[in-house]
Design a protein that fits this description.
Elements lengths: L4 H31 L3 E2 L1 H5 L9 E7 L5 E2 L5 E7 L4 E7 L11 E9 L2 E9 L8 H21 L5
Parallel strand pairs: 1-2, 5-7
Antiparallel strand pairs: 2-4, 2-6, 3-4, 4-5, 6-7
Length: 157
Amino acid sequence: MPMNPTRKRRLIVVAVVAVAASLAIGLGIYALQQNMNYLFTPSQVQSGQASHYRTFRLGGMVKAGSIQRSDTSLKVTFTVVDASGAMPVEYTGILPDLFRGNQAVIATGHMDNARFIATEVLAKHDATYMPKELKDAMAKAHADKKIKQAIAQDKVP
């Protein structure tokens, strides 16, 4: 039985709108995923968990005594540590006034071989302050380290 021309046009319009809406939603989700900055600790980066991301955030504590400033430019190198890892960081720019050793820091940037190149550095003045997501990530890394040590000693918890 042939379809009524009016129904056929309506069905085509509905199908075109559905395809266009699906395409718009798919492109929107893709764009949002490309702009997300994931937070990793140094041990997570070293274990390869951040290798899928072009840009991400590195969080941890600035290792005391690791800050080295260039005499001729705004280039600064320092080491970010967590419970079981350390990552060298390079940043060119003006650091926050409160940036120093033994302080929580979050740096946004990308990996260049084994060095993290930061484009932005955030620091907080209070050593007891740590962003919740960084605190959770460091606690998980510390727990994973304890579990691996227990397995290595045949003392599985």
